[in-house]
Fold AI-2E family transporter.
Amino acid sequence: MSKLPGWLGRVGAELTQLGERLGERRAEADADDVPGNGTVRDSVPAPPDYAPSVAAKPEPAAAIPWGMRVAAEAAWRLLVLAGMLWVLMKIISAVQLVVMAFVGALLVTALLQPTVARLKKWGLPRGVATAVTAVSGFVIMGLIGWFVVWQVVDNIDVLSQRVTDGIEELKRWLLNSPFHVTEQQISDLAKSLSDAIGTNTEEITSAGIQGVTVVVELLTGLLLAVFATLFLLYDGKRIWQWSLKLAPAAARPGLAGAGPRAWRTLTAYVRGTLIVALIDAVFIGLGLYFLDVPLAVPLAVFIFLGAFIPLVGAVISGALAVVVSLVTQDVFTALMVLIVVLAVQQIEGHILQPFILGRAVRVHPLAVVLAVATGGLVAGIGGAVVAVPLVAVTNTVVGFLRAYSLEQATRGGPGPHGATAHDIAPTPAPTPAPTATPTPPQKPTPGPDAAGSDAPPTEPGNGKE
């Protein structure tokens, strides 16, 4: 029993030595796995002579053609922009009434703001100038609306009588026409129209209720536009400065320069369109008055409002004037009205708009047509009205920001950064450096700082030794 502790001690010592040897071997194995330590594992045996040569595989990005890489990066950026626009359109459609009221307030503010600035220049306080301008503008618009309604109510009986006479004349013409239309066919057509109206009474009633809802929304939007116009006239500058703070700091200088130019473009568009619409309404209204067409004043006002929708509004308002003259008068009068409308619109398109609007809001006709169509599909008549000024303002802002970025780039500003294909773009071959004429070695300048000094070296040929 006395030999047992000694035996256990020897077994423990041998186990300890065994563990130490295993640890050393494990450390040697780990050291062999580390590349670059000069071990045998780092050396790769050369392939035999009979093995085929295999070219090294390029990087995956380098294997894709350059044009495809550019197209892929442009595609995902366009997808991000399209998604952002889709979300933005959803938000705008959800609050369409508020957005349209604010846009209308911007248009009215662009029309009235020069008057406020002129009154302030004459010495009136800002609040008084804003109140005088707003009250005057709203009173004038209210008087115009009242005058139109008065003219419609005053001439509605004459118009209905002339429409009835025109329908009877059309009926007589159909009976005597070479189409061999009979009295029974005309009666059947009238009966079919009456039955259709009676059958769709529920739909007509629901449409009327929906029309009442639309009127309530219009009144609400009008009230919002009035309040927004007052605040924009009074405090528009500080509202713009506050809006600039929402933009990133790096983008503020460019936006600060683009904002006033965009506002000048919008002001020029609204004032120019107002002058052109007024000229159209006056001259076409005078033509309707001298041709004895009923409702000449309401038609002139409709032509005035239609001029704010480029191309489309002029066509619709002119066609309505021709139809009214055809129904209430005769074919000759309708033809004369058509000549007057076409003549005034040609003068407007080729002389008035280029002279009054100028280059500030020049937009290509194709862009105008596409903008009006898109605005009408998205937001109806309101969208068609604001589409062209939106395109004109966007054109001004984009042009200024492009010129501003080029100017900053020429001044040595920071270039574009981010995930681009610039790192793997093919670069031109470096041009060989010109051969320099060897210069004789210069003698080092003696002194305590000759060795290890950070001062720039003395250039050769300066006369210093």
Summary: The chain is about 75% helix and 0% strand. The CA atoms of residues 145 and 418 lie 56 Å apart. Confidence is low (pLDDT under 50) at residues 417-427, 443-465.
